[in-house]
Structure formats: structure tokens, C-alpha cells
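In the current project phase, we have settled on a layout for protein records. One protein thus recorded is set out beneath this paragraph:
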Amino acid sequence: MSGTVEGMSESGHEPRAVLSRIEATLKGMPRASYFRVNRCLRLRVGDQWPTRQVLLDDWHMILARGGAGTYVVEGTHVPLTRGVLVFCTPGIKWQALNDPGDPVRIIPVRFDVVSQKTQRPIRSKKNKRWFACTPRDVDHVEQLFTSLHRAWSAGAPDRDGLCHATVHALLGMLCDELRRRESGAFDARVERVRSHIQRHPTERST
């Protein structure tokens, strides 16, 4: 992977694949809902990898901080080197593989989309989607993940709001990079997504 955004999908390494998944994720969020963290860790993977293939029942986001490993997402191998970000919705099949000679270091986040009215998770395995990419500003992305981990570990009262804002900040960053790379009619699609995120960075509905 290079230092710019590169979406990984069955069709190849195309920025447009990343944008398509971001748009679908935002549009697919139910109204009056928000992201709530279930677990956020900071670890160096050891004997717990490799894992068997599992079906996600919540949302999953992971940042690789170093080392070497592989995520197998819906049959597609995603190399986990520093800066790689993987985002999955419920219903995605995945498996993790580790390099014992250079264990991967990761910050994985498991979360749900929660109804504001009932405060219960809204889980659906329909319209499943995922993307993987390497943001240009890896240091900033790692700072966002680290802040989220600290808030969750400390039991900060605003950790749900921080999770929601962090997810939107990450998606907005990716859209900005895609907007700079693309032009013409496609740029208008990027602009719509970017504008929505900038207007509602912490809004809990779409």
C-alpha cells in the first residue's frame, strides 16, 4: 500500500471502492441513532491469532500500529502493516492471521449502532459492507484511536460521544483525501459526503 487512500475490495485497489462503502455506511445508519463502544483495546497480538473464521454481530474497526499480520475479510486478504485501517459492519465474515516473527500491534474497536429512543443496539446483517485503506496522515489517525482507547479504558462519561465523533472524523478525513484525488462528476459525490460529515461531526442521526 502507498501513503494515500487505497480501498481494498474484490474488484481491486480503487479509491472509488472506499467512497462507495463510506456513502453506503452513512446512508444505511438508522435515524436517531449513534455509535456506542463495546470494547476498545490496544494490544500486541500473540498466541490468540490465528483465529477461526467468525461472523461479526457488531461493527468492527481496527488500526494496525506496526508488525505484520493479515485480515481475511469475506475471502479477501488484507495485509496489516502500520497505518492500515479496516472497517466492517455486522454480517461480515473475517479471520485474523499473525506473523509470529513480527507480531502485529493493533487498536481494535467493537461498537454498535444504538437507538437513541430505546438505547438498544440496532443490529442487522443486511446490506453488509467493509473497506480497508491507508490514510495519508497515519499519525493523526493513530491519535484519534489512542484518544478513543484512553476514554473507553478510563470509563469516561463522554466515551459514547467520543466514539461517534471519532468514527465521523475518520470517514471525513478519508473523504477529503478522495476529493483531492478525484475530479469531475465523481468529485460531487465526495463533496456531498464530506459536507454532511463536516456539518454534523457529532450529530447522532443522519
